[in-house]
Amino acid sequence: MENIKVVATNRKARHEYFILDTYEAGLELQGSEIKSIRAGQISLAEAFVQVEAGQAWLMEAHIAPYEQAARNNHDPRRRRRLLLHKDEIRRLFDIVRQKGVTVIPLRLYLKKGRAKVEIATAKGKKLYDKRADIARRDAERELQRSFHERG
Question: Domain residue spans in the chain?
Fold first, then answer.
């Protein structure tokens, strides 16, 4: 098993979207940002990925300022370049042009000391899809309870 430490997850992503495909991307960071990430000071709640001009950017991810960096600190919501292969960026760009498909971050983790983002192409769920998922989960939970009561 690889040495991975999950720092942040986008918990709403699987509830709000159907996940189509996932990718692992590196993240271009400043020194104070990686220190904040190692301290767990990051939120992916409103984050999304924008693909433009042959580059992929992580937008609206909040990385809290690192207190010890003082004046050399970073802007918490600045856009950060994602490090992907050109063919992956091209594939993402083609997918995003389709109606209703977006790219979202699922989780941010440290792998061999480097910050990585798991991003996914996703299609938004309608309200009735969310209700169906909740009903299915409740039914599975009831089934598990009945098995445990018998056994």
Answer: 4-125
